[in-house]
Amino acid sequence: MKKIQLGQSDLHVTPICLGTMTFGEQVDEPTSHAILSRSLERGVDFIDTAEMYSVPTRQETYSVTETIIGNWFAANPGARQKLTLATKVAGPLRNTPWVREGVGMTAADIVASCNASLKRLKTDVIDLYQIHWPERHVPAFGNIYYDPAKEVSQTPILEQLETFAALVKAGKVRAIGLSNETPYGVHEFVRLAEQHGLPRVATVQNVYNLASRGVENGLDETMHRLGVSLLAYSPLAYGLLTGKYDKSGITGPDAPEAARITRYESVRKLRWGRPDALKAARLYNQLARDNGLTPTQLALAFCYTKWQVASTIIGVTSVAQLDEDIDAYGTTLSPEVLAEIDRIRWEIRDPAA
Asked: Which residues does the UniProt record annotate as the domain NADP-dependent oxidoreductase (predicted)?
């Protein structure tokens, strides 16, 4: 796999990134370590985590994923130097005092979160430190409408950038990124960084898959023109695009009991549980089968080959799933299949936006 430069930073990574939010909830520590080792063995040198993981978020598992990764680094001397490590500081939260008090994201909050992540990860530096979701109010995680009345921002973007600049200067962070961000947010972060001589965001990590292509509604142009790279998360739409829910839906008798949408009511309440999301997935999954592909191959090849995507974040619960996802790299989609994908999108749009 040819390395990809992230934005204008000095980070060069594989076009596949190992996502880890299942570690500590669906995946126990020994299996997590096996997945990490196998991923590195297969040539994937980019891993992504967050202080909020594992998912679904709850006090009992808050930050466990970073601890599991840190333990793997400790057990595998030399592994850390072979990898680009990304993690995230949580955006503003409510009713989660185990993360931080208040609903903002002050300079002190960012520094405290960074130091805690470094300690859990047993490393001296975070290669890519991202804001998990904006400090200001934005439509995200399935919400599609911006509502000015909900604005409760307390920390200006400039102050956030200045704090990240201090972390970079201290040698704790190499590059910075955003997540669940909008075109306005990307423009403003880049504008202020250039105006004040502060670190420029290298990446934006947003949802992107066959059933959720909102990135192509203007964010892709923003990122292309400003030289910011997309890290695509949920390429399999929480499993909808693997075909495992096609027969009986997400709660039917044949739905896999251990799968996230089946197992967690909080996940079903989000975009992944929408009836239209499953309807769209069934259309794409059948398109794959009709063209001699598995649903997983179609969904991942779509992300792996799109010009908008720098690196695709794959989340797995087993080594076998990891191998399947990596093996899909190199799959090409014919012009006819791509045209049919666009036709389906025109019919049903982005039900998991």
From this structure: 15-344
